[in-house]
Structures are given as C-alpha cells and as structure tokens.
Design a protein that fits this description.
Length: about 270
C-alpha cells in the first residue's frame, strides 16, 4: 500500500525533516524517512522527482499533499527572499525545505517541550509521551504511537510529564493541555485573528514566550509572516543582517526565510 506524488519540486526529505520544524520523523539507512503524522505511520522516500509514501493509500493523497505543502510554488518564494548573497547561499544549501502543515495541538506541545533543548532530546521526550498516552500504530511489524490528543492527556499532571524528561517544562505542559481543553486557547479562534493578535493570545499562556509562540504560528497555524528567533537565527541575523528584524526584511515570507537561515546557520556553525 503506497502512493506516489508526482513532480514534487523544491523538495528533499532530509532538508524538510531535519530543519527543526518537526520531531517525529527519523532517517533510515537507505536515506528515506519513517514518521508519524495525524495518526499515520509511513515511510517517505524521494527519487529526485517523485515522492513515494509507503503505508498510505489513495484516500490519503489530499492529506499528504497538504501536509508537505506541495501546492505552493517555492520557486517564487525563494525568488522573493533572495536579494542578498547570504540568502542565496542559504536557499541553495537548504533548497529542499518545505514547511509542513502540522496539527496545532501537537505543534504547541512539541515547541513548549523544545525550549532550551536539543533536537535529539526533544524527540526523545516526545516519543516517551507518545508511548505513554498515544495510540499504537503497527507498520511493517513495528509499533509506532500517535501523538496524544487533549482528551488522552487530560488526566496528565506535572509529575506525569516530568517522567518524560521535560524538566521544568512539565508545569507548562499541564497548564497548556488544560487551556486547550477549557477553550482558553482555541485553534479556530486563533485562525480567525490576525497574526499579531494570535501571537498576543499565545503569549498569554503560562510558559509560552516569543520563540514558542512564533513557532506555533508558523508550523501549527501556517502563519508565514512569523519569524521564530532561536540562538541560531539570532546569530544569523546579527552576522549577516546587522541584527535587523526578520519580518521587516522578509515580510509575508518571513517564515520561509527563517527556515532556510536556521538550517544554513546551524549547519555551518
């Protein structure tokens, strides 16, 4: 059971799944990636033109095209943000990055966990939580786990989250689950607001700062005029743009520019 998404340009699995935007995809020895998204466990490979998704069937094609953002013209986006030599280098280096359309709640919880942590550590914490609270998914004789829903996490307390190695973030996670369950943070409401208003709403949450709010906006709500700033992006902006503001520089395509810069700067040091 598999589907083939033909003529996928401006895409490379390694770039897309290892650019810091997601935490549930892992590279296999053959260069493909196995991951879990929206309760599906699949293996994704790319032959230079076509994306092959093993474990998916035809009824899933619409989901995967949206998830991989395949309907967007990344050539035009790259052209719009390529005005400097540094950006052209970053675009060439991470040419296969596409911004995934991830589920809001998963993105929120994942980036709260991500604060002041490394990608391997983040992935480990999330995997432990999924094993404890998610649903089992069998794929090619192995068991994977879905990302738990708000209902599946509603009884989880700070002490439960601590078992996953999240440290001080445990109290933030307990409160975040409660905020979503009680409707204090609502995806539909956030989507109805301007990016500025949605950002302000997210910043009202306990334990959510600028970087987490901007990551949730970009990766969980497809607000491409967001520009998350972590240590790597901060260094890039100071080194290459005299500390300029990403949104001022890149406007409505700020989120795309941020991903290329992050991937480039983290790789070259």
């Amino acid at each position: 059971m598999r589907i083939v998404l033909n003529n996928a340009m401006d895409f490379l699995p390694e770039h897309t799944f290892e650019c810091g935007q997601c935490f549930r995809w892992n590279k296999e020895k053959d260069g493909s990636f196995t991951g879990v998204a929206k309760g599906r466990a699949v293996n994704l490979s790319y032959d230079g033109r076509n994306i092959i998704i093993d474990g998916a069937d035809n009824k899933d094609e619409t989901f995967w095209r949206a998830y991989l953002d395949l309907t967007r013209d990344y050539g035009k986006i790259k052209e719009s943000i390529s005005s400097t030599s540094v950006m052209r280098e970053a675009l060439n280096f991470g040419y296969g990055i596409r911004i995934l359309k991830q589920e809001f709640f998963e993105t929120l919880i994942s980036f709260i966990i991500s604060q002041r942590s490394s990608i391997p550590k983040i992935k480990s914490c999330i995997e432990k939580m999924c094993r404890e609270y998610g649903k089992e998914i069998e794929y090619k004789g192995k068991i994977y786990y879905s990302f738990p829903s708000t209902e599946e996490l509603k009884e989880a307390k700070e002490s439960d989250f601590e078992k996953f190695g999240v440290g001080y973030r445990a109290k933030y996670l307990e409160r975040a689950v409660k905020d979503v369950l009680e409707g204090k943070i609502n995806e539909e409401e956030l989507l109805s607001l301007s990016t500025k208003e949605a950002r302000a709403k997210l910043l009202e949450m306990y334990g959510v700062g600028n970087k987490v709010a901007d990551c949730v906006l970009l990766f969980g709500l497809s607000r491409f005029d967001s520009f998350p700033v972590d240590v790597w992006v901060d260094r890039a902006m100071k080194e290459f743009f005299n500390g300029g503001d990403g949104i001022t520089l890149f406007g409505e395509n700020s989120g795309f520019a941020q991903q290329y810069l992050f991937y480039y700067k983290r790789s070259i040091g």
